[in-house]
């Protein structure tokens, strides 16, 4: 989606009070997201939206450009709806931003971090009701080298874990088996990254197993370092591990599972509006909302306050 110009969002589909007037939607469906459910077929989703008073076209696209082209051809389109996990929602959000349309979310993924931060229901029929009857709010998004992220951008061990997991899933492994084996593989190799961080103009150097930049700050007492109190705080969160040892990483993993990250003194946390990350390599492996890709360094991260309009309950 690089190269999309960010349209100044008009207020189509929004009353003066922020109440959504959603009648026509384009749904980006990822049929492989989460467990297989009959109510998430294109036919079933079309029927659910019709029952909620909306006309809906459901696409299973090959690319974001396909969604963009179709959306521009639909007269009176009120919203782009993402039906999938955080990766699908990320890509749909970039189309919604480019078109200046609100984003609706049907959280069908495994973790659904963005939907959780918005307080959206996980049942399909309730999520459809929210899109049709909810209200529109503006939330922040993060950006790295021109690419939007809704949850976080990470480099270090996590992009490597994702690549190993996807490789083994392509070999036919069950998702959670592939994920667990990928974690063990990466921890055994214990990769570290040397980074120079420029945080709101100040520079520091670190050697760490990971760097995570989040869209707003995580609640350190939440499970798995995933919960956020707000998506409208206009701040990036920066997280890294001070100690480069394997034992420190394992302690952090345990604390994250138990929801006690705030007790871990090895975690360095900073809030900022802009962060630049330099490495020794021209390209860095980065995971944006869990989707791996390679970006040129330095990685330039910034917060875009209130840039994305989303439909919530």
In short:
With 313 residues, this protein is an alpha+beta fold. It has helices spanning 42-51, 64-73, 86-99, 113-118, 124-133, 157-170, 175-189, 246-258, and strands at residues 24-29, 55-59, 79-84, 103-107, 135-144, 147-149, 152-156, 193-199, 202-208, 210-215, 236-241, 267-272, 274-278, 283-288, 291-296, 299-312.
Overview of the molecule:
The chain is of the alpha+beta class and 313 residues long. 29% of the residues lie in helices and 33% in strands. The protein has helices spanning 42-51, 64-73, 86-99, 113-118, 124-133, 157-170, 175-189, 246-258, and strands spanning 24-29, 55-59, 79-84, 103-107, 135-144, 147-149, 152-156, 193-199, 202-208, 210-215, 236-241, 267-272, 274-278, 283-288, 291-296, 299-312. It has a six-stranded antiparallel β-sheet with strand order 6-5-16-13-8-9. Strands 12-11-10-7-14-15 form a six-stranded antiparallel β-sheet, covered by helices on one side. Strand 8 and strand 9 form a beta hairpin. The longest helix has 15 residues, at 175-189. The protein is globular and about 55 Å long. The two termini are 29 Å apart. The model is unreliable at 1-17 (pLDDT under 50).
- Strand content is 25-35%
Poorly predicted regions are 1-17
Helical residue percent band: 25-40%
Sheet with the most strands: spatial strand order:
6-5-16-13-8-9
Instruction: Report the total helices.
Output: 8
What global shape is seen? globular
Pairing-aware structural class of the strands and helices? alpha+beta
From the N-terminal CA to the C-terminal CA, the straight-line distance is 29 Å
- Order of SSEs: EHEHEHEHHEEEHHEEEEHEEEEE
- Whole-angstrom Rg: 19 Å
Summarize the biggest pleated sheet: 6 strands, antiparallel
How many beta-strand runs? 16
Mean pLDDT: 83
């Amino acid at each position: 989606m690089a190269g999309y110009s960010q349209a100044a969002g008009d207020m189509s589909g929004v009353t003066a009070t922020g109440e959504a007037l959603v009648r026509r939607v384009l749904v980006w469906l990822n049929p492989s997201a989460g467990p297989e459910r009959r109510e998430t077929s294109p036919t079933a989703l079309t029927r659910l939206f019709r029952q909620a008073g909306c006309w809906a076209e459901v696409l299973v696209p090959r690319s974001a450009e396909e969604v963009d082209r179709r959306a521009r051809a639909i007269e009176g389109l009120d919203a782009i709806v993402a039906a999938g996990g955080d990766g699908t929602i990320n890509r749909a959000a970039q189309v919604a931003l480019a078109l200046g349309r609100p984003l609706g979310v049907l959280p069908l993924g495994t973790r659904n971090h963005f939907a959780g931060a918005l307080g959206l229901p996980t049942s399909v029929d309730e999520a459809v009701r929210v899109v049709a009857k909810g209200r529109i709010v503006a939330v922040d998004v993060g950006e790295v080298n021109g690419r939007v992220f809704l949850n976080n951008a990470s480099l270090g061990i996590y992009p490597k874990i994702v690549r190993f997991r996807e490789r083994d899933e392509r070999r036919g492994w069950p998702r959670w088996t592939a994920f667990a084996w990928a974690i063990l593989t990466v921890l055994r190799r214990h990769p570290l990254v040397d980074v120079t961080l420029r945080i709101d103009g100040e520079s520091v150097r670190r050697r760490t197993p990971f760097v995570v930049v989040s869209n707003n700050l995580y609640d350190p007492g939440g499970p798995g370092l995933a919960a956020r109190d707000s998506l409208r705080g206009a701040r990036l969160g920066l997280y890294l591990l001070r100690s480069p040892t394997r034992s420190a990483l394992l302690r952090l993993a345990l604390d994250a599972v138990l929801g006690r990250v705030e007790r871990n003194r090895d975690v360095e946390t900073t809030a900022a509006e802009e962060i630049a990350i330099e490495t020794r390599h021209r390209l860095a492996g980065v995971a944006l909302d869990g989707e791996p890709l390679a970006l040129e360094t330095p990685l330039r991260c910034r917060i875009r306050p209130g840039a994305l309009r989303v439909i919530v309950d």
